[in-house]
Structures are given as structure tokens and as C-alpha cells.
Amino acid sequence: MPDAVTICECFARDGLQHEPEFVPTATKVALLDSFADAGFRRIEATSYSHPSRVPGFSDASEVLGAIRRRPGVAFKATCPNPRAVRRALDDLDAGHGAEELSLLVSASESHTERNLRTSRAGQWERVSEMVALAGGRFKLVGVVSVAFGCPFEGAVDPGRVAEDVARFADLGADLVTLGDTTGVATPPSVRALFARLGADVPVVAHFHNTRGTGIANAVAALDVGCRNFDTAMGGVGGHPSAIRYGAGLTGNVCTEDLVSLFDAMGVDTGIDLDLLAKASAACEDALGRPLHSMVARAGFTPTPNQENP
Q1: Contact 5, 228 (CB under 8 A)
Q2: Residue 205 and residue 175: Cα distance in Å, rounded?
Q3: How far is it, in rounded angstroms, from Cα 284 to Cα 108?
Q4: Which helix (H) or strand (E) covers residue 101, if one does?
């Protein structure tokens, strides 16, 4: 049997947070439904960020209330602080909550201050409070941002990242995501960091393609045992549009491109390629422009039985 991976589709949260214009709620809901139809079993749906800070997610509760639920599909919402977890609990009590919550830390002090408006120590206190508030009612996903390098401080100590992963595991996180927030990772640094981590909690590879290395880094993570990946349709995304750091194309690894590569390698993603292509086109329609997927232009990678002799 071919190896299998789980890909979390992040267009609707990490992707849309970079967009300066509000995407209508009905459009978001239709896209999220199309992702589930295509076979994604983990989907990042929205964020409980403060509406004044990230206006694109002011409809978080409405989105979660309108998407079609189906067995085996988990929708995730990002929670930057305890207030966000309380909102998530209110939605859960109302019958339309997220199945998963992302809890955020940054591996550097400077990025923590810029992105979360606190210190690392302060954010870890928040995370502990958020875990207690969640009360075991959600699957928890710890996120370590700038895990491979900080736009303000440069290199990040891999030992600090490993400690953060272990700390999330001790708090009961079900998964921990390593975020290459500004696309500075390389295959050697990916192999070294993933190989260093223990097996206490599964790790998710979250690469940004800012320097064109995202897919190479994903394959490097696969080679050292990672089986969970975050991607976004069309390679969109990055920091919230009102927060500026980094340069160039700040988006995620393109879902279409990584699924195509894994499919050609015999790695089972569980994604229907025809429905993926339709969802990809719908994402471009929603944003009103061509996006960055190479596969969207050239088609999926031919498998050996499809190639001409």
C-alpha cells in the first residue's frame, strides 16, 4: 500500500487573512464545502481574531454555522487569546462550533510582540489558560510560528522550537504545527529539526513558499516521517494584511501542486483530483485573479500509466 498523508486545507484562514478585501460569507462557505467534497478531512475554516484587527474574519461564527457538516471532516479555527476560546465555546454550545482549535506561540520574542502583542512568557500563560478553558471539548493544535527563522531576529534556536513542541505536548495538544512563517527553511534544516523532535505528539509541516522552496521542504519532511501538512489553494496567504513583515509572495505551499506531486509519487492524500481542480478554479474566481499554482496552469503531474511511451 502507498504511504498516506493528511493535508489540511488552509485557504479560508491563513490564505484569506492576507487579503485586503473582505470575502463574502456565502463565498467562504461554498469554498469550504467544496474542500470537504474534494476529500480534505482537516480544513482550516476561520479565525477568532478580533474583528478590528483582522476584519476578514468578523463573520467567523456565521461561517461555522453555515458550512455543511459530515462525518470524518474536522473544521479548525484559530484562537490567539482566551477571549477567542470563549467565542469558540459559545459557538460550540450553539451547535455549530469548530472541531479543532489552533493555539499560537512564536519561537522568537520579536515576532511574539509584533504578532501577538505580548512576550513569549505571556503568550505561554495565555496558552495554558486557553487549554484550561477549552476543557477537552476540542482537538487542540499547537502552532509554533517562525520555527525556522524570524524576520526580525534571524536564526531561531532549534532547541527552543523542540522545547515549545514538548510544552504543547505536555499541555495535551493533539498535533503541533511548525510554521516556516517567512519561507526561510531549507531541506537540510527541515530534516534536522523534524528528526530532532520526539514522538510525543504528531507534527504538522506548515511551509510558506516565499523563496520557492516550499515543496522541496515538504518532501524533506515526508522523508523523515512527517505525515501531516498544511497547504493553501493557489499558494495564497501570509501574515494579516494589516501587519507587514517579510517580502515577495508570502503565501503557503500550493495545495494543488503538493497534492499533484504526492499523487505522482504514490503517496495517498485521499483527495479527488477532479474535484480539487474545480475547487482551485473556484478559489481564483472568489479572489478575482489567477493565483500561484503551477498545476492550475499546466495540469496535474502525469502518472506513469498516463505518460506517452
Answers
A1: yes
A2: 11
A3: 34
A4: strand 100-106
Residue 228 sits at φ, ψ, to 5 deg, of -130, 130
- Taking only the tens place, the pLDDT of each residue in 197-209 is 977 899 999 999 9
Give the whole-angstrom CA distance, residue 54 versus residue 62: 16
As a whole number of angstroms, the distance between CA 172 and CA 89 comes to 18
Q: Which of 13-22, 39-48, 70-79 has the lowest mean pLDDT?
A: 13-22
The DSSP H or E segment spanning 298 is: helix 295-298
The DSSP string of 159-176 is HHHHHHHHHHHHHT-SEE
What predicted TM-score, i.e. pTM, was given to this entire model?
A: 0.94
Burial (CB count <10 Å: 0-12, 13-18, 19+), residue 97 = buried
**142's grid cell:** 499547537
Query: Which residue bears the cell 478590528?
Result: 52
Count of beta carbons in the 10 Å neighbourhood of residue 176: 27
- 79's enclosing H/E stretch is strand 74-79
Query: Do the beta carbons of residue 285 and residue 30 sit within 8 Å?
Result: no
